[in-house]
Write a structure and sequence with these properties.
Number of domains: 2
Strand order of the largest sheet: 6-12-13-18-17-16-15-14
Shape: elongated
CATH class of the largest domain: Alpha Beta
CATH superfamily of the largest domain: Bira Bifunctional Protein, Domain 2
Strand content: 15-25%
Amino acid sequence: MQRSKIKEILTQKKPDDEVLVQGWVKTRRSSKSVTFVQITDGSTLQDLQIVVDETNPGHDAAATLTTGCSVSVQGVLVESPGQGQKFEIQANTLTVLGESDPDSYPLQKKRHSPEFLREIAHLRPRTNTFGAMARVRNSLAYAIHTFFQERGFQFIQTPIITASDAEGAGSMFQVTTLNLNDVPKDNGAVKHEDDFFGRPTFLTVSGQLEAEIFAMALSDVYTFGPTFRAENSNTSRHLAEFWMVEPEVAFCQLDGLSELAEDFLKRLCSHVLANCLEDMEFFNKWYDNSTISTLDSIANSQFERLTYTEAVDLLKKSSQTFEYPVDWGIDLQSEHERYLTETMIQRPVIVTDYPKDIKAFYMRLNDDGETVRAMDVLVPRIGEIIGGSQREERREILEGRMNESGISHDEYSWYLDLRSYGTVPHSGFGLGFERTVQFITGVSNIRDVIPFPRTPKSAEF
RNA sequence: UCCCCGAUAGCUCAGCGGUAGAGCGGUCGGCUGUUAACCGAUAGGUCGUAGGUUCGAAUCCUACUCGGGGAGCCA
C-alpha cells in the first residue's frame, strides 16, 4: 500500500478510505481502553490523530510511544467524534519504526524558547514553528523564481568563490588551501602564488557585478544564492551566510527598478497568503498578530516614494527627537528608517537619490553631481529589506568614481569593458532572503528563519 | 566591535549574604473518546567558568565564556 502524506489525507481522502501514514509522534494520550497518538510528517502544520483500541494487537506498543518516535500506521480514515480535528485514523496495524528515549529526547510537548531550539538545530525542524518556517521559506523561494521566470528573466548562477576583494560590501571570508600553521612566505609576505588559485580568493559578498555581465547580453537576469559577510555583526537581522536575490535589468532606469521591487515584494506577500495560509495563521497567532494584515495591506497598497532629501526634510520637520540628529549628507540611521516606515508613512517606503559619498562607486551619478541613483526599500520592523541602484553606465564617470573610492581599474577592467562595448542604462537590487522571511513571518530573530544560522562564534551543525 | 541585561533541575523561571524551590517534562501507579488530558507518588542541581570579599556566597566584586535587547556595518 502506498504511503499518503497527512496533507493529502486531510484534503483528498474520504471517510472509509484505507490509508498508510508514516510520521513522528508529537504526543500520546492513553487509557486502558484506547490510545490516541498525534503524529506529524511535515507535509502540513496539522497533526493527524491515530486511534488505537485496546483490542488492537498494536495497542501495547502504542501505549508506550513517546514524543519523537517514528511510526507507520495502516488504518481507516473516519470522521472524528472528538473536538479539535475533523478526521482521525482508526488504526488496523501500528508499527514502531524508531524509538525515542524520553529521558534524553529534548523536545517536549510544550513550547520551547527559540534560544533553546537553536542549540538543537538538528531536531528543531520537528517543531510546529520550524516546520512552518521551512514551508514558508520553500514557498517564498518558489515565488521568487516564478516571479522572474514569468517576466522572462534568466536565472544566472554567479560564482561563490571570487577574486574581487573590494566590492564595497564589507569584509570577506578568505578561501585558501594554504597550511595556516606553516604559511609559505616570501620576504615575510604570504606567497599567494602557492595557494590553490594562485592568488587570494574570497567568498562572494554579492553576485551583482557578475550579474551585470549577463544583463549586458541577456537583458533581464537574476541570481538567487548564498552570500557571505565576515562582518562582526551581532544583531537580530545579520548573518555571516545568507541568501540573496539579485535581479539585474538592462535598459532600465531607477524608476523602472523601483516598480519592479514593489511588484516583487507584493507578489511575495500575496503568494504566501495564497499558498501558506495555515502556516501564516500560526505565525500570526504566536509571533506577530499583525503579520497577516500587514501582508494583506502591502499586497494591495501603493509604496511611498521619497528622495533622500525629502526624507531628511520630513524627519527634520517631525517633532520626534532622535538619538542621532538627522542631517543632509549623513546616512539614515535605523531609528530614522523605522520612524519613516513605521510611524510617519506606515507602509513600505522607497527612498532614492542618496548623497554619493555614502553609497557605492557603481551607482549612477545624478546631474547635480552630489547624489546617486540609489534606492533602499524600507519596511516596518525590519528596516532596509532591499538595496539597489541604477548602475553608472558612463565609463569616464565610473572611472572617476573608482578613483575617489580607491578601486583598482586593472582589477575591474572587465567591469569597465562593459561600459566600452555597447553600454546601456541598467539597474539592479539585492533582496535579503532571510530578512524577507523575517518580515513575512514576524519571527524577530534572523537565526530562527534559516535552517542552520552562521553568526560570529557560531557555526554548529 | 560598543552599550545595557541575563546565565539556578531536561525545559521555563523564582530565590538576591545564613541548610537549594515551583511549574512543566521524566519515572511509577490510577482514571477517562482523549486534545499542551486529568489525579496521586517519586527521582533529579559542583546555582555558566575562574578568581576575590566574608565567619559564611546562588546571592556582593572582578575577569572570561555564552545568550538576549539595542547601536554600528549591511541584505
